[in-house]
């Protein structure tokens, strides 16, 4: 696969044309205020059947958007008695929280690790356990177009709200150090990590790998690959609604969340990535507000990005950020 997007020197200066809604902050403030009218009700159930001896696993349920129950895993090093830094992870598109032994990296590094299940997803490549009780109007198969003609009904309003509440739930555990919390994820999870970074003011780090949900005006018109293509296919059928759809997507664009980032950030991008084109990742990186930010670039990789090489970078840098 050849390079298909802008050359690297242009990527480093690229800026999105996504127009931020005037009521962006008011929209999200009202959304989160409504969610917090429901008790968080975070419940941590110790699991003794995981077969794991070096970590302790908890099956978690908390109230997300609309008070709906959202599942998660909380994994910590076995035997700890004092709070440790916390990594809150979000999952890639189509996947669910899977099984506990799939989430050993951060607990093995001595950190607390909370993995949020994604409502309605979890049948693509890893199983999930969280329903999405909200319906929507006509939509294309997938999640990108559910309720897409109104920000109030759009699917990602619910998911991003869940993601913020996941931080609150994870921080409620007595062995999680709330003052040293990172949002983390790849692809869709990276987009959610960015959103949380813009909505939660006191994170210690934000770590988005090849993030999805960024620079919608460019992404939806540049790549033919799913999931962005779901939006193009919707508009192919629902002719004349592009302006309305673009208006909705602006409330969920990682570029605008990045402009509110208040913690050090570690991004990654892959220059042959046709799922999350590198210009869309750089759009978020270049807009990111905190002055301490880095981006690892993988020249000849597609959406897999840096894979274990990027994990090695994260293992080196993230604990230092979290431990101050």
UniProtKB/TrEMBL annotation:
Active site residues per record: 187, 273, 303
GO molecular function ontology, one term from the record: carboxylic ester hydrolase activity
Pfam families (alphabetical): AXE1
Gene Ontology biological process terms in this record: polysaccharide metabolic process
Region of interest called Disordered, as start-end residue ranges on this chain: 122-141
Domain Acetyl xylan esterase span(s) in chain numbering: 1-314
Residues bound to substrate: 93
Top-level taxon in the UniProt lineage: Bacteria
Protein name: Acetylxylan esterase
Originating species: Streptomyces halstedii
């Amino acid at each position: 696969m050849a390079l298909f997007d802008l050359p690297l020197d242009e990527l480093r200066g690229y800026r999105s044309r996504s127009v931020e809604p005037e009521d962006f902050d008011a929209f999200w403030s009202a959304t989160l205020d409504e969610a917090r009218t429901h008790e968080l009700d975070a419940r941590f159930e110790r699991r003794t059947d995981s077969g794991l001896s070096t970590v302790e696993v908890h099956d978690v349920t908390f109230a997300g958007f609309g008070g709906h129950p959202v599942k998660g895993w909380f994994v910590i090093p076995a035997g700890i008695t004092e709070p440790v830094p916390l990594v809150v992870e979000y999952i890639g598109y189509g996947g669910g929280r899977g099984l506990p032994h799939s989430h050993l990296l951060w607990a093995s590094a001595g950190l607390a690790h909370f993995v949020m299940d994604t409502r309605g997803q979890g049948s693509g490549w890893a199983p999930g356990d969280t329903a999405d009780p909200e319906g929507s109007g006509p939509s294309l198969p997938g999640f990108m177009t559910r309720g897409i003609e109104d920000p109030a009904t759009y699917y990602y309003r619910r998911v991003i709200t869940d993601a913020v509440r996941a931080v609150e739930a994870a921080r409620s555990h007595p062995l999680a150090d709330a003052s040293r919390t990172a949002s983390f994820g790849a692809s869709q999870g990276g987009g959610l990590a960015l959103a949380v970074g813009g909505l939660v003011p006191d994170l210690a780090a934000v770590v988005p790998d090849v993030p999805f949900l960024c620079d919608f005006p460019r992404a939806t018109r540049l790549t033919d690959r799913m999931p962005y293509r779901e939006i193009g296919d919707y508009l192919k059928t629902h002719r004349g609604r592009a302006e309305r759809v673009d208006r909705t997507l602006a409330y969920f664009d990682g570029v605008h969340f990045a402009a509110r980032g208040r913690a050090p950030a570690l991004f990654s991008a892959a220059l042959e990535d046709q799922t999350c084109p590198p210009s869309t990742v750089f759009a978020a990186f270049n807009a990111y507000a905190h002055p301490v930010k880095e981006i690892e670039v993988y020249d000849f990789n597609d959406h897999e990005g840096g894979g274990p090489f990027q994990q090695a970078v994260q293992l080196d840098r993230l604990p230092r950020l979290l431990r101050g």
